[in-house]
Amino acid sequence: MTIREQLELREMEYLSEFAAKSSESKGREREEEQCDLRPVFQRDRDRILHSKSFRRMKQKTQVFLLPKGDHYRTRLTHTLEVSQNARTIAKALRLNEDLAEAIALGHDLGHTPFGHAGERALNQVCPNGFKHNEQSVRVADFLEKQGRGLNLTWEVRDGILNHKTSGRPATLEGEVVRLSDKIAYINHDIDDAIRGGILRPEDIPLKYRRILGETTKARLNSMIHNVIRSSEGKPYISMSEEIAEATAGLRRFMFENVYLNPVAKREENKAVEMLKNLYGYYMEHMEELPQRYLETIDTGQSTKEQSVCDFIAGMTDAYAVKKFQEYFIPEGWKN
To answer: What contacts 315, CB < 8 A, 6 or more positions away?
Structure first.
């Protein structure tokens, strides 16, 4: 018996009846020989962790564009915080921790530069629209590894696709990530907003502080403990009514005071216009795209419009600025 088979047997014996079991996965788009060491969801986690799109998230905006300080969250650190929340909840509920971690690490692989401002820009110019959750699946299925993709399992792909608030994941592990994402960004965005002088701790409505806690640590503790207590032994993931209402209220507060705050977001329109200009430029100068993107057009695997969106969505903040300067900002005379 291989180590993988021993681990799969241990899952069957230990995990909750509601957990996804590695040995019962619906499988991959392309069949592969099983690893002798790692069950399928652990293998997916490793593939995501080693991907180029995962590494690029370290230079992609979470909320604050191109922050000057070293301690503001990026899309990568956000992803790691989501993963930690999801692992804690999954472990406590005896769910499949490998599956939860793989979904969490992959949920934002397709996010644009400049956060949701970039997503908004591409959604305006791409003929079929643009949603970062769908792009994350496209990255995993097609764009990674020079067009071969990561060939992830059905369960991981489903969790990535359905991680947004409106999503309906097919597994409890996917539900855990969907809720962990919200818990993570509400709390770390409060922390960053306070660091950036957009909020003061006392600005958070007292009714939410009384229910959830006065600090980031206390709020995380309240929310995560409540998810575990409310979901234990049940075929669904939930919060108690009081905590769920307070969490939703805190999220609304963040939209009103941070996510739509004109001071925090004053540079976003520039980012939107920059990406829209890049899209227009590449549509007129397709030869500027990397060769592998052109090949997908030549082989009929992608349209021109989709390939341009794929390329721009994969950019980091700094690379997008660099290409914009290269194409639109005149350089001084060098001769």
So the answer is: 112, 113, 323
